[in-house]
Specification:
Layout: H1 5-25, H2 30-37, H3 41-49, H4 58-68, H5 72-78, H6 96-106, H7 112-127
Helix pairs in contact: 1-3
Amino acid sequence: MSPSPAVRAARFGKFVDRLLRDAKERGMTIADVERATGVSKTTIYRWRDGDWSKDPRPSQVRALCEGLGVPCEIAYRLLGWSDAGPPKEEPPIDDPDLREVARRLRDPYVSEAEKQAIRIMIRYLARRRDVLTD
């Protein structure tokens, strides 16, 4: 099971903090780190502070690690990714009925009772063993 986003943010934040401390011990300023990696200091500080809601971009994580001479796999593991990088994104839902169900589940104006009824029906249909054919 993959760690929660908060746990991953905390782990990655500690990792970035360690990278910055190590860089400072080598005489690098944050501006030097920014130049060496191509990652903005704002982004680096947000990562360090765990101030992000979605995963960092893989290209930026790779640039940070390569620019500071650290194996990317360490950062990938801390982010809950495989050693090869982040998980592949799921393809978008093409079925209009499924898009409508997803929209209704996200809609703040749909009652919780209706959302619960939708979830119950989805679970029921997912567990059915017989397939209706016409």
